[in-house]
């Protein structure tokens, strides 16, 4: 999938919530894929559950992200971007992990797809 971001920060199940917040800040993203030792996507950690957890108990910042990670929503490298966008809208998510052979290949966001759609439309007007 040409639109995906391939240089994506990731977490491991043992990464801490502090690690997640630090990477979200550094890379200015609202969520991060969680991958195991083989590079398989095993979860997704997004900003809202992290905020909720830290508001309830700041001491959980040292806890593992595995306690908060959601089941990952993935698409394949050969899937159509429009189908991925529809799925993101239906599931009310902003980002999906793109996998190849089950392993993390990149991520795709709603904005990535919208930018590509607008660029394609602009090219057709020229």
Ordered list of secondary-structure elements with their pairings:
Blueprint: H1 17-27, E1 31-35, E2 41-46, H2 47-56, E3 74-76, H3 81-91, E4 95-100, E5 103-109, H4 110-125
Parallel strand pairs: 3-4
Antiparallel strand pairs: 1-2, 4-5
Which properties best describe this structure?
126 residues, alpha+beta, three-stranded mixed β-sheet, two-stranded antiparallel sheet, 4 helices, globular
Question: Could you explain the architecture of this structure?
Answer:
The protein is α+β, with helices and mostly antiparallel strands and 126 residues long. The chain is built from 4 helices and 5 strands. It has helices spanning 17-27, 47-56, 81-91, 110-125, and strands at 31-35, 41-46, 74-76, 95-100, 103-109. It has a 3-stranded mixed sheet. It has a two-stranded antiparallel sheet with strand order 1-2. The mean pLDDT is 90.
Q: Give the helix/strand class.
A: alpha+beta
- Strand segment count: 5
Distance between the termini: 25 Å
Mean pLDDT: 90
Order of helices and strands: HEEHEHEEH
Describe the structure concisely for a colleague:
The chain has 126 residues and is of the alpha+beta class. It is 38% helix and 21% strand.
């Amino acid at each position: 999938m040409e639109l995906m971001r391939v240089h994506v920060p990731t977490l491991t199940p043992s990464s801490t919530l502090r690690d997640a917040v630090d990477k979200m800040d550094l890379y200015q993203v609202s969520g991060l894929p969680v991958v195991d030792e083989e590079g398989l996507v095993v979860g997704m950690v997004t900003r809202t559950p992290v905020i909720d957890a830290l508001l309830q108990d700041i001491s959980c910042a040292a806890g593992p992200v595995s306690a908060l990670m959601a089941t990952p929503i993935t698409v394949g490298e050969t899937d159509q971007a429009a189908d991925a966008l529809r799925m993101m809208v239906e599931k009310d998510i902003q980002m999906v992990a793109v996998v190849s052979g089950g392993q993390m290949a990149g991520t795709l966001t709603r904005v990535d797809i919208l930018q590509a759609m607008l660029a394609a439309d602009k090219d057709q007007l020229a």
